[in-house]
Every structure is written in structure tokens, then in C-alpha cells.
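For reference, the entry.
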Amino acid sequence: MREKTKLCGALTFAGTSLTVNRMGYGAMQLAGQDGDKRVWGPPRDVPGAIAVLREAVASGVNHIDTSDFYGPHVTNQIIKRALHPYPDDLVIVTKVGGRRGADGSWLHARSRQEIIDAVHDNMRNLGLDALQAVNLRLGGFAAPEDEPLEEPVSALAELKQQGLVQHIGLSTVSPPQLAEAQAITEIVCIQNLYNVAQRGDDQFIDDLAAQGIAYVPYFPLGGFSPVQSAALNAAAASLRVTPMQVALAWLLQRAPNILLIPGTSSIGHLRENLAAATLELPPETIAELDQTASAVRRPT
């Protein structure tokens, strides 16, 4: 068994007893692909997927991000098969608010009954009597949208009162939407698109840190321009690490309330990701990456 580490320290979700290492694991890539249907069906190598999960936990990961609409159902079933009964310190965070069409499409599922059904689906496939934390997925693929959220948030709040959900988070939302949700129930985490290139949430992250709310960025390498990719590659070459490791280390150094959930179906890539938790970027590297991001965003 690999030695467990703190993986860049720990963070406690505000107002909760949930404490996790800041480097976690995202389970989406454990699902397979069927033609053009991505994140669909079982992976080609189920034993390999199980091995990745066990390696992650053995290495100190105690925060897994998943959803029953990955597969659908597949990733949760693999997590259960690999890790149940779960370690006492393992926090599994799942998502609701979406479903999959028969053609593999990603559809909204945000009515009260759909939220209730999704929570029960997650519980059943994970083998849990209650879910530790549930993110309500809103917005589009990469950005928040102006949409009503009272019904799905209220449904989650009811499930929390019933003891089926312990804590609630939001995904792909704006600051006004967070405030609207907070008028209904406590919110412990936000999961939005953010990385060294896509930095629209800079102020949002700082405001969340002041409230003690965790921020979980997804797609750490998503949306890079060729110029930004070149800068990231140059930084990685100078430090003799991979661009992904630089991107992850930058996020960890960006703010203390950031939690990471990089996903992979490879033990080798998993180990590379976890190693980023021990990588400290020098100030000049951070300045170069920030300067490149600012230059790309600056209007001409």
C-alpha cells in the first residue's frame, strides 16, 4: 500500500465536520464511451478503474467527486465495488440536476421530483443511507445561466431536513445565484469552470474564501488559447514537470479554499496528478502565467 500523504493540506467545509485533503479525485473518466456517446457505459477495463480508485484512496485522497448521470450509474457502481464499505474519512460528493438521453445527450433534470429521484439513485448505486454532500448542477456547459433555482434548491433542502442529504453545494452558478440559494439553505461549496486561462471567477473565489466556502474548479486545462498553452508548456519544461501538474499546482496556490478533483482512468496519470500537490511554483512562473492570461484577455 502506498503511503498516505496530506496532499497539500486539508480544508474543512464551512459549518460542517467534513475535512478533506485539497487534492481529490473526479470520477467522471471512469465511465466508458460508446461511439459518439461520451461518459457512457462501462469502461473497457473495469478492474483497472477499480485499481485507480483504490490507489487514490491508498495515496491519501479522501474526497471523490461523482454523479449518477456519469455512465449513467456506472461510476457510482464502480466506486461502490472498489471502496465499499467506505473508509471513515472518505467524503463522496455527488451531483444532481441532470440526466442522460438515450442518445447520450446531457439534459436538465431540475424539477422537485427529478431532484428527489436523483438523490435516491445516487444513494442506491453508492450503497449509502445518506449523501454527505450534493451539488446542484445548473448553468450551461461552461458558464452560469440566468435561470430559476428555487425549486431544485428547496427540494434539496427538504431532503436535508429528512437526513438524506447532509450538505448542499452548487455547480456552474453566479454570485447572485449563490445569494439566492443561501436565502433557502446553507451552501458549503461551489463547483465552476476555472483555471489559469479561464479566470472569470477571480473575485468570486476571494469572496467565497471570506465566507469559508470551498471552491472546486473543473476542467483545469479547458479553454486555453495557443498562446496560453505555449506559456504553460514552457513553464512545465523549465520545472521538468507536465503542463497538467503546473496547472494543478497553480490552482492550489491561487487560494486556500480551492479543492481539486482531477480525473483519470490511469494509475500513472493519477500519480502525476497527486504529485502536483507537492509542486511549489516559483513566483516568477506564477507571474509569467498571470501575465499571459491578462494579455490574452486584454481587448485590442
Observations:
- The chain has a mean pLDDT of 94.
- The radius of gyration is 19 Å.
- The CA atoms of residues 228 and 296 lie 8 Å apart.
